[in-house]
Amino acid sequence: PSASPDSVAGHRSARLCQQPRGGSPVAARAASSLPRPAKYVAIDCEMVGTGPRGKLSELARCTVVNYEGDVVYDKYVRPELPIVDYRTRWSGVTKRHMKSAIPFRAAQAEILKILKDKIVVGHAIHNDFQALKYFHPKDRTRDTSRIPLLNQKAGIPVKANASLKSLAKHLLHKKIQVGCKGHSSVEDAQTTMELYRLVEVEWEEELASSLPPRSPSPVADSAQYMDDQYWPADLNTDDL
């Protein structure tokens, strides 16, 4: 049985700080580098079809939630090209939603302002960034579709591309993306953050272990500064 996301979050710092003295340097690095919860957001986007035969995917709704799962952004977005296929069965977007939608460029500016300097969590998040026409720094991106830890906990082959729906069922014991009215980007974003929090500590430790070791800054003995090599070149002359 999986642990509660809240219990994991509550012990996120404690688990890293309870290392014995002289313990793993990896754990110590992870503890020192673990971002504060305010630095985390999860995102989910819904797309509609535009272009020839509706084959192009454009943003039609975007939701961003914080570390606790509270919605900080949720708006319908009007694509730059005319909508050919609303893909309602999956997107949940209908024609009436476009009446209150904001232009893509306006939405993009608002969303990127929220994502700036954040650790962004998502499931198959490259699709969301593609819809936003944006690239987030890799070291600040957490894709729950690419975490072997989640697959292991869910009893799914490590290399399998587990769906958000499947992971939610096995690890959170809840059903999402049911019915014929389409997905809810709010539900999906919240679920993604819950999944991340389940393995947050272990995952961040793994990421920290993959970083190259920091070499200590050279500290010269103060007595060495009396040597000629540490004096400016224009003072190292025989004429002085």
UniProtKB/TrEMBL annotation:
Keywords: Exonuclease, Hydrolase, Nuclease, Nucleus
Taxonomic superkingdom: Eukaryota
Subcellular locations according to the entry: Nucleus
Gene Ontology cellular component list: nucleolus
SUPFAM superfamilies attached to this UniProt entry: Ribonuclease H-like
Main location (coarse class): nucleus
InterPro entries: REXO1/3/4-like (IPR047021), Ribonucl_H (IPR013520), RNaseH-like_sf (IPR012337), RNaseH_sf (IPR036397)
SMART domains given in the database record: EXOIII
Ranges of residues in domain Exonuclease: 39-205
Molecular-function GO terms, alphabetical: exonuclease activity; nucleic acid binding
Disordered: annotated span: 1-29
Protein name (database record): AEN nuclease
